[in-house]
TrEMBL record:
Compositionally skewed regions (Polar residues) per UniProt: 344-353
Catalyzed reactions: a uridine in RNA = a pseudouridine in RNA
Location of region: Disordered: 322-353
Species name: Ficus carica
Start and end residues of each Pseudouridine synthase RsuA/RluA-like domain: 131-310
Full protein name: Pseudouridine synthase RsuA/RluA-like domain-containing protein
InterPro entries on file: PsdUridine_synth_cat_dom_sf (IPR020103), PsdUridine_synth_RluA-like_CS (IPR006224), PsdUridine_synth_RsuA/RluA (IPR006145), RluA_PseudoU_synthase (IPR050188)
GO biological process, one term: enzyme-directed rRNA pseudouridine synthesis
GO MF assignments: pseudouridine synthase activity; RNA binding
Length: 417
């Protein structure tokens, strides 16, 4: 038998590495799935199957062009290879790179998934009751699987470290078991119902305006001593991932009235932009540079507290998405995490002071198996992720309703020395 050349042997070995039994992981998150390094909680990369049905705008495109145009996180050459080796399939079957997709077909993408890291902070269980569990959600950790996050979530960590899997069967953020939501960068009290009926009771009380919410924030400047109410509409731009205070319509109406400009019924028919929003603020303390402020949102709009504090001239001190309009030394590196929070997985998807298990946050091949086709390996996190983030100085401290109150301790940054 003719001996194979070294190059051919290496090529065959590389092909064997790519012969992986692909399947969407059915097993729940476990403790060993996490790697703690340089103050961050990482997830060991794992294989995952993303599934989507062909959208109208995809019809008529080749399978490779579809992926290259719609999911720009990977190079064109990767998608060519992924189709050839079967990592991308149509209706469960391999297709050629020239295959043109049709309406209603199911497209699968099997890949080596890398989740962004979060801060290496505990998800602390505050109260465990028959129908309710309350936890202290750390900043930077999303509540539910979303975007690039699946295991690095409150639900995943509770499942892995507190054996609370039977409680949190939550596939999406729209689950009936979620009583309220906290943005990824916000920390504090999170209430999770243990059954749908309890969640419905909470929801009915919230919709009826019977639930009071309280947050604490660290803001720039000396906040007014007396209670300040900001009652300004908020318009959320989902594409940009940010909200704005919409007061221009009211200002325009005031000008029209003051100067008695005759415009017929136009003024009355002019729509007011955004949704009504109201927040009550009370100063707790100040050191002349920053102030600790109690925040009571009357309504619940996206980024409402952050936008209203900016509108009031006292934005959250480390908030770079809604910063001060005046140049100011934030005395902190700030956070660029808002960009990551609004991102999505481009692969077809719609305890404190823990010891490090790796030395280099950018490379830790010894802690997980390297995939020869993966465009993120050998890094732990996905490429393009900015890891220099911190938690937002906004914290949920209390929710109360008819006959019940749940609280969370204040964070360290809420004390001015």
């Amino acid at each position: 038998m003719k001996r194979k050349k070294r190059g051919e042997e290496e090529e065959e070995e590389e092909e064997k590495k790519m012969e992986i039994v692909w399947q969407t992981p059915a097993n729940p998150p476990e403790k060993q799935d996490y790697i703690f390094c340089n103050g961050k909680r990482h997830v060991r990369p794992y294989y995952f199957e993303f599934i989507a049905h062909v959208k109208n705008r995809w019809v008529g495109k080749t399978i490779v062009d579809l992926f290259a145009e719609e999911f720009k996180g990977r190079p064109y050459e990767y998608y060519v290879s992924a189709v050839k080796c079967g990592r991308i399939q149509v209706d469960g079957e391999m297709v050629p790179v020239s295959y043109v997709v049709k309406s209603s077909q199911k497209i699968s993408h099997f890949l080596h998934r890398h989740e962004p890291p979060v801060l290496a902070l505990d998800v602390r269980v505050l109260k465990k009751e028959p129908d309710v569990v309350t936890v202290w959600k750390p900043a930077s950790v999303p509540v539910h699987p979303c975007g690039q996050y699946r295991k690095n979530t409150v639900v995943g960590i509770l499942q892995a470290e507190h054996d609370l899997a039977p409680v949190f069967r939550i596939p999406t953020a729209s689950s009936k078991y979620s009583v309220h939501r906290l943005d990824r960068l916000v920390s504090g009290l999170l209430i999770l119902a243990r059954n749908a009926s309890k969640a419905d009771i909470f929801r009915q009380q919230i919709e009826a305006g019977k639930v009071q919410k309280q947050y604490v924030a660290r803001v720039i400047g000396v906040f007014p001593e007396h209670e300040k109410v900001v009652d300004v509409n908020i318009n959320h731009n989902a594409r940009e991932g940010r909200s704005t205070a919409e007061f221009y319509a009211e200002l325009f109406a005031l000008v029209i009235f003051r100067f008695k400009v005759e415009v017929g019924d136009y003024c009355h028919d002019m729509p007011v932009k955004g949704k009504t929003a109201c927040t009550k603020f009370t100063r707790i303390s100040t050191d002349g540079i920053h102030s600790i402020v109690q925040c009571k949102p009357v309504t619940g709009r996206t980024h409402q507290i952050r936008v209203h504090l900016q509108y009031a001239g006292h934005p959250i001190a480390n908030d770079t998405l809604y910063p001060s309009k005046e140049p100011v030394d934030l005395s902190t590196e700030g956070t660029t995490a808002d960009r990551a929070a609004t991102g999505s997985d481009r692969s077809l998807s719609p305890s404190f002071d823990q010891d490090c298990s790796c030395q280099n946050e950018e490379s830790s091949g010894e802690d997980f198996s390297i995939d020869p086709m993966c465009t993120n390996c050998p890094n732990l996190g996905p490429k393009g992720y900015d890891g220099d983030e911190e938690g937002l100085w906004l914290h949920c401290v209390r929710y109360s309703g008819p006959g019940w109150t749940y609280e969370c301790p204040y964070p360290d940054w809420a004390t001015l020395s």
